[in-house]
Amino acid sequence: MSRDVEDLNRHLLRARDAMDRAYxxxxxxxxxAAVAHLSEAHFSRSFRTCFGETPHRxxxxxxxxxxxxxxxxxxxxxxxxxxxxxxxxxxTFSRTFREIVGETPSDYRAGHGPIMxxxxxxxxxxxxxxxxxxxxxxxxxxxxxxxxxx
Amino acid sequence: MITKLNVxxxxxxxxxxxxxxxxxxxxxxxxxxxxxxxxxxxxxRFPGDDVEIFLEEPGPPLHDEATAxxxxxxxxxxxxxxxxxxxxxxxxxxxxLQARGVSDFTQEPIDHGYGTDxxxxxxxxxxxxxxxxxxxxxxxTA
Lengths: 150, 142
Hints:
The complex is a heterodimer. Chain A is an all-alpha fold.
């Protein structure tokens, strides 16, 4: 039993790493389930059990974390950043960003400057915690189905 | 006062598999390998360095079976140990690791203000970052 859980966790971790690595690509649950060698339904259910959130929400937080970095550290436009981090619609990006961070991308940029810390600290420590009440509303990869406009 | 890090540890699922990875893939060397009953004090270090890494396998006598099972699950979630190593050529090492069969890269080499780094996982899920410190004025790309 325990060995089965360990093997499952290791496969799920590879899929999570794939999201961290390829966040800007139009990932969908089918591709991620394939990384984990699981069916789509089993993958989504197991991922949430293992990591406490849906794979879709994890990917959203990864993309928003990268967007937060780019808003702080670069002069690129909000629209460019939206597509850079893997969203295919500015409306979805803005709504998701505000839902997770609690303010708009422009307001976030105005209120935050560069952070001097290693990248692994950025990735882990600045990963946004979903705003209260929003966590349960993410269960599909809807906005990631279409190719990113890059 | 404390003057230096002497030994740290990384939790692994299998000490022999860990030894193969850290020595034959990453290029460390075996430092100590002492068995006493079910306990095995197995450490690795970089050649020429005296800081050792204990390859710690959860289980008796260090942990009861239930605790060991919890630790093993956490290891495979990537929620336990992490290590940061230094290199004088991260991009060259990236090629070498690929040639040695390492495929679990969490990040290919990327330039940052503080240097160039990449990420891999050991066979069990532990995160490893390898950093080449920056030269003055290195451009930030991520």
